[in-house]
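dumping this here so i dont lose it
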């Protein structure tokens, strides 16, 4: 028995979760944007994640299903960031209730072209029946399904057929949710007021709280009231069995109450994964998940819903599933009555509701429920403890509810002004996170960039091996496997090996008439001693034969002593059995990123450096520079933190400085010779400042070695003097984040370019 209980506890936490979020696009002054759905967001008719709802101005974000609410919430946040950054000067309205409508009340219906004629006719029906203003109301839909293991565990010993048991389990959850849905409206309600341009029938019943804020002063969720997204008259489907449910919905359609099942605006829907809300498919396939639909957008959250509230919904649904049902016959009408009371009077501290036919104070009813949910959580050791403090605070103090906080904010700043400020704040957050994919920030940044670019296009992305940065991207009938963003099916193994071997690279490039530095291979200290007479007092470079990211490289552009060269050789030898001794090529180093037959980006990489302020030491200046949020560790941010290591100490020594030296105000000091971003360098975009002749050389270099994606490191003494250059290295698996988000200059959509190559 104990073993089964422990298994049940573990299985209760398993499930499948998805989120849908609707929102309006608005102009800079807070009126509805009547522009077409942005082309940068792809085809709304086929995009699985970003589409439109009722209006062309109403964007809908749809996450795939995930095994945790955290993963679904992270994905929703990523979709928000992508959307916010691809709608030009428009912003995403943070509230469920509509913004100010444009002059003349023009509200463009979603246009899916010839392929969406039926969808267009349905929207016309909704427009005529409910009015466009109601149809612009937005919200959160939370999709939930039980884990198969949980259903199987609960089914054990049941005499029923499994499919009937599964359907009945979901139906019990639905009935219990409908009975207590008012609690979700109270806790998550965020529509306590409307704009003056909203429906006159509703606005005329309210009073002005400020210039453009109308309410009845106690409303908590107009969206869930008769002024919101509800049927003309309340409809009560029969949830006794699945066949009873479908029969009752068909009866509503036959009576003309609704046109199809989608028009049944219930706070919760039964869904099948193979046909959604279609009644015949629901009967054939059974209930696969439920969709909760009475959640207002939380305008204090960028995603529209707090993660802690999603976790509360999870434990609440589990509690309702195992909770015994009451026998009160008129429960549907009572539940509807409670919802309406809470929606319009939820901010009243003296509000009473009905519980199985008896009046009870809202706070008393809510505390009783929360006590039971907390006991359920503790009994099954579900570890949801941290979420209850916030929920209890909202129950005990009406002023702590989202609706009350929102009312206070809008009374002070106005409906439109406050909402626009929130929209701008969320946009800025999206911009600050433009290089991140939420939930995957432990992965290399280049991989995150490629994944986000794929999601923007609506491609399916799957992480195969997280530690190895191995992903799979699917689009249509094509599947591509990619490692570390640029290791793809387009490059062959020999080309990779050639680029890895710097001696082979130089040999092949030279054969193709491309300039490379002269040099020799060293395997022992004796080799260095024998060759030193040729390189003494000459500008030289010592580097491992087969490494990347600037590791083990020592540059002596003014020449050096044999002793220093020997020390550099010994260090380079720790990374490879062979060290290259090469002539140093003068000029600035530029990284050309070649993808296919074009240069997708060019960077000048400045070695790690600091600028003095007259009081701080080099060590302190490095620490300050490392505080930049763009700097991190392990290629997960656009720039890398600067480390003060033995190489930095050695590089400072000839300058007469140590890490504890204080720099004069404005004094610039470089900390390394090599300019790799991986060692703390700065990246400056030069793509539009370098002539096509050098770009052709970079493409020819990649082509000579058979590389499709390649980083070409080129030394150019002067951009004003064409033809003077030298290729010092070709790099397989070049980082794309340094071009996508340079320290200075234009950001390049390299993820998109890689996808163009893979899915041409």
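and the seq i came up w/
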């Amino acid at each position: 028995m104990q073993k089964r209980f422990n298994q049940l506890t573990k299985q209760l936490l398993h499930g499948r979760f998805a989120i849908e979020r609707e929102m309006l696009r608005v102009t800079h002054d807070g009126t509805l944007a009547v522009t077409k759905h942005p082309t940068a967001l792809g085809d709304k008719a086929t995009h699985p994640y970003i589409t439109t709802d009722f209006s062309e101005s109403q964007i809908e974000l749809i996450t795939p299903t995930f095994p945790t609410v955290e993963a679904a919430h992270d994905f929703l946040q990523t979709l928000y960031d992508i959307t916010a950054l691809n709608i030009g000067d428009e912003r995403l309205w943070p509230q469920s209730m509509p913004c100010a409508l444009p002059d003349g009340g023009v509200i463009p219906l979603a246009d899916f072209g010839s392929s969406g004629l039926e969808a267009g006719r349905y929207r016309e029906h909704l427009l005529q029946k409910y009015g466009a203003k109601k149809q612009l109301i937005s919200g959160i839909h939370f999709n939930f399904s039980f884990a198969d293991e949980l259903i199987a565990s609960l089914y054990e010993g049941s005499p029923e057929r499994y499919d009937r048991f599964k359907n009945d389990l979901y139906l019990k959850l639905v009935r219990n949710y409908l009975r207590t849905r008012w609690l979700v409206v109270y806790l998550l309600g965020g529509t306590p007021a409307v704009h003056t341009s909203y429906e006159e029938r509703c606005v005329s019943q309210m009073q002005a709280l400020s210039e453009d804020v109308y309410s009845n002063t106690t409303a908590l969720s107009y969206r869930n009231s008769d002024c919101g997204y509800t049927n003309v008259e309340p409809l009560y489907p029969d949830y006794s069995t699945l066949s009873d449910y479908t029969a009752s919905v068909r009866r509503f359609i036959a009576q003309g109450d609704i046109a199809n099942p989608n028009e049944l605006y219930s706070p919760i829907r039964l869904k099948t994964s193979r046909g959604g809300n279609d009644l015949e498919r629901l009967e054939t396939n059974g209930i696969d998940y439920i969709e909760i639909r009475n959640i207002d957008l939380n305008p204090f959250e960028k995603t529209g819903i707090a993660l802690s509230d999603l976790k509360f919904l999870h434990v609440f649904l589990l509690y309702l599933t195992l909770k015994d049902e009451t026998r009160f016959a008129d429960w549907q009408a009572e539940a509807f009555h409670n919802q309406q009371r809470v929606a319009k009077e939820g901010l009243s501290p003296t509000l009473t509701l009905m519980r199985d036919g008896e009046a009870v104070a809202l706070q008393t009813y809510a505390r009783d429920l929360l006590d039971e949910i907390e006991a359920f959580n503790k009994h099954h050791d579900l570890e949801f403890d941290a979420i209850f403090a916030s929920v209890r605070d909202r129950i005990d103090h009406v002023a702590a509810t989202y609706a009350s906080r929102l009312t206070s904010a809008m009374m002070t700043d106005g409906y439109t002004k406050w909402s626009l400020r929130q929209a701008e704040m969320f946009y800025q957050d999206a911009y600050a996170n433009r290089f991140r994919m939420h939930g995957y920030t432990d992965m290399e940044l280049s991989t995150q960039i490629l994944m986000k670019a794929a999601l923007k296009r609506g491609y399916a992305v799957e992480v195969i091996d997280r530690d190895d940065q191995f992903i799979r991207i699917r689009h249509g009938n094509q599947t591509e496997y990619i490692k570390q963003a640029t290791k793809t099916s387009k490059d062959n193994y020999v080309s990779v090996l050639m680029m890895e071997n710097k001696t082979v690279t130089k040999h092949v490039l030279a054969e193709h008439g491309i300039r490379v530095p002269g040099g020799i291979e060293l395997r022992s200290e004796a080799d260095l001693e024998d060759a030193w007479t040729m390189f003494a007092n000459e500008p030289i470079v010592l580097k491992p034969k087969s490494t990347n990211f600037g590791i083990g490289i020592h540059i002596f552009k003014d020449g050096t002593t044999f002793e220093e060269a020997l020390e550099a050789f010994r260090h380079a030898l720790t990374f490879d059995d062979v060290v290259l001794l090469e002539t140093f090529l003068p000029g600035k180093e530029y990284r050309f990123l070649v993808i296919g037959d074009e240069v997708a980006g060019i960077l000048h990489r400045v070695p790690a450096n600091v600028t003095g302020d007259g009081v701080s030491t080099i060590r302190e200046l490095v620490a300050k520079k490392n505080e930049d949020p763009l700097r991190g560790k392990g290629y997960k941010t656009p720039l890398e933190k600067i480390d003060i290591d033995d190489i930095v100490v050695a590089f400072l020594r000839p300058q007469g400085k140590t890490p504890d030296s204080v720099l004069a105000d404005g004094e610039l000091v470089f900390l390394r010779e090599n300019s790799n971003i991986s060692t703390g360098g700065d990246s400056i975009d030069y793509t539009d400042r370098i002539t096509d002749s050098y770009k052709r050389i970079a493409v020819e270099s990649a082509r000579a070695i058979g590389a499709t994606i390649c980083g070409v490191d080129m030394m150019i003494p002067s951009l004003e003097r064409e033809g003077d250059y030298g290729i010092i290295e070709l790099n397989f698996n070049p980082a794309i984040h340094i071009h996508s988000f340079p320290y200075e200059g234009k950001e390049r959509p390299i993820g998109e370019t890689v996808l163009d190559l893979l899915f041409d």
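The chain has a mean pLDDT of 93.
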